[in-house]
Every structure is written in structure tokens, then in C-alpha cells.
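Fold this sequence, please.
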Amino acid sequence: MPDEENEDHSIELVMPFVTVQSNDGPHDDQSYTAGYEMGRLDDQLEFEKPSVLDSVVLTENIKQVDLIAMKNGYSMTPTLHEEDPTWTFVKFTKLLYTN
């Protein structure tokens, strides 16, 4: 049985960002990651058009998440992750009317 106190809880990307500063690249890690996360979310809402989408986002991006939801005709319900407040659960619901 693993020792939970000594267990490493790090997360590794399936696809590394090789052009970020932590990998000797020119781009700021945090900004690059935020842009990637927001771009993927915008694509999901704009092109897949789910009636409901449950997602997890970095809490620091929540204001941008709200703008992306509005742009694509969704309401959003955020819930801060209780154990790790750097993450927020978000439920997106397609509005019946859009501009």
C-alpha cells in the first residue's frame, strides 16, 4: 500500500509544451498554458456546441472563462474545488436564445 504522505502528486502533460521558458523556450509558461486552456475551451463551446459541458479550469482563468461562455451563448456555474482551490469545476449550459 503506498504511503500517501510521501506520494508524489505532480501532474505531467501528455504533450509537453516545448516552447516555454521551463524548456528553454521563448514563451512564458503560465501565459502559454492559460492561452492553450482558453483556446481549447473556446473551440469546444463554439464548434462542438454541447447543450451541457462539465469542465475543470484553472481558477485564475475564471474571468476569461466567463467571457468565453458568454461569447458562445452559454451560462456557467463555477464551483471551487474544495481540496485544491487552484482548480474550479465549471458547468456550461447552452442558452435557449443567442445573439
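The mean pLDDT is 89. The chain has one domain: 21-94.
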